[in-house]
Amino acid sequence: MSTNPLERNLGLDLVRVTEWTALKAGRWMGLGNRIEADRVATEAMLAALNELEMDGYIVIGEESKSGRHSPLDTGNRVGKGGGPAMDVVADPIDGTNLLVQGRAGAISVVAVAPRHAMWVCAPAAYMEKIVVDREVGRALVPECLEAPAAWTLALIARCKGKDVRDLVVFVLDRPRHAELIEEIRRAGARVSLHSDGDIAGAIMAALPGHGVDVLMGVGGVAEGVTAACAVRALRGAMVARLAPQSRQEWEAVTRAGLDTRRILTCEELVQSNEVFFAATGVTDGPLLDGVHYRGHYATTHSLVLRGETGTLRQIRAEYTLDER
Questions:
Q1: Inter-axis angle of helices 178-187 and 149-160, to 10 degrees?
Q2: Which ranges of the chain would DSSP assign to H, the alpha helix?
Q3: What is the mean pLDDT of residues 244-264?
Q4: How confident is the model at residue 252 (pLDDT cuts 50, 70, 90)?
Q5: How far apart are CA 179 and CA 19, in angstroms?
Q6: What is the DSSP letter of 259?
Q7: Cα 278 from Cα 145, distance rounded (Å)
Q8: What 3-state class would DSSP assign to 295?
């Protein structure tokens, strides 16, 4: 078997990882146990990743935001050790609260790119970002992140041939976004508030005609770099900069010499078009259907992206379960 990422579609390997993780995580829907759901999903994803023919390096782990450590922490290795050397970002459950509360929109996600292609920004945990689709494309410049929301929304509306009032803006429902939400509403655009699901929101914003015109606001760095992989593969656009949310994070970022004023584009967050991305729905949502269990069978719905070719695949699979 070839170990050159240019000669095979690693996305088709990755989707088996997210499918397996979603199958395990889906059993925790609505049970209210976040810790166990996280543990089971992380163990499932690690086991599946370690079956892949690659030398994988976790670039940004979940501990950057949650403070909890796991086998998918920053710097850990995954894969069999042979094959291509790859940067890896993995989120066993994007939207764990959605899952354990029985809400829509939880997904399992993993992305890879050639080693040293992804932006490394430890110990930063949060970043501000804007994500749009290819209709807006190059019109989204770094200055958009510093401009008033109304200015950026007017730019997006012109590119899409819409009125500002026709735009839908994905925003995480957080106290830190109170001013941003008011700016968007004053501009006349419609706000779509979500309790979780930062990565899914970015994908919806980058997919033309998917009901979301733009994602705005502050979310996790791990989610941001993961989203950048999908956005680049979809030929969308993204701008981002670090946005520490606590005194401790500001101090850690300063000690690390990271520039909180620097605005990065999607191409700077992921410096290769040889990116592969896979996501599988865990609970039913606007992006993907969740896992459906039917006795000894289960079905999954996944999205697979390959950056080099711009290929988007949707995969529906049926699994035979052996849980005796």
A1: 50
A2: 10-25, 34-49, 63-66, 96-100, 149-160, 178-187, 198-206, 221-233, 247-255, 266-269
A3: 94
A4: very high
A5: 38
A6: -
A7: 28
A8: coil
Under DSSP, is residue 309 helix (H, G, I), strand (E, B) or coil?
Answer: coil
pLDDT of residue 209: 83
CB 114 within 8 A of CB 274: yes
What is the DSSP secondary structure assignment for residue 65, as one 8-state letter?
Answer: H
Q: Nearest Cα to 220, choosing from 116, 135, 93?
A: 93
- The Cβ of residue 32 has, within 10 Å, a number of other Cβ atoms equal to 11
Residue type, 241: R
Instruction: Tell me which amino acid residue 244 is.
Output: P
Q: List pLDDT tens digits, range 97-147.
A: 999 999 999 999 999 999 999 999 889 999 999 999 999 998 999 999 999
In degrees, rounded to 5, the angle at the alpha carbon of residue 208 between the alpha carbons of residues 203 and 212 is 60
pLDDT number for residue 171:
98
What pLDDT, in 10s, does the model give residues 160-199? 999 999 999 999 999 999 999 999 999 999 999 999 999 9
Do 199 and 219 contact (CB within 8 A), yes or no?
Answer: no
Q: State the pLDDT confidence band at 315, using cuts at 50, 70 and 90.
A: very high
- With 0-12 / 13-18 / 19 or more C-beta atoms within 10 angstroms meaning exposed / middle / buried, residue 191 is middle
Long-range Cβ contacts of 259-265 (<8 Å, 24+ apart): 263/142, 263/145, 263/146, 263/239, 264/119, 264/142, 264/239, 264/240, 265/142, 265/237, 265/238, 265/239
pLDDT for res 71? 87
What is the DSSP code string of 184-251? HHHHTPEEEEESS-HHHHHHHHHSTTSS--EEEEEEEHHHHHHHHHHHHHTT-EEEEEE---SHHHHH
Q: Which amino acid is at 102?
A: G
Can you read off the two tokens belonging to residue 281? Answer: 């729905």
Q: What is the pTM of this model?
A: 0.93
Q: Summarize the confidence of residues 51-76 as an average pLDDT.
A: 84
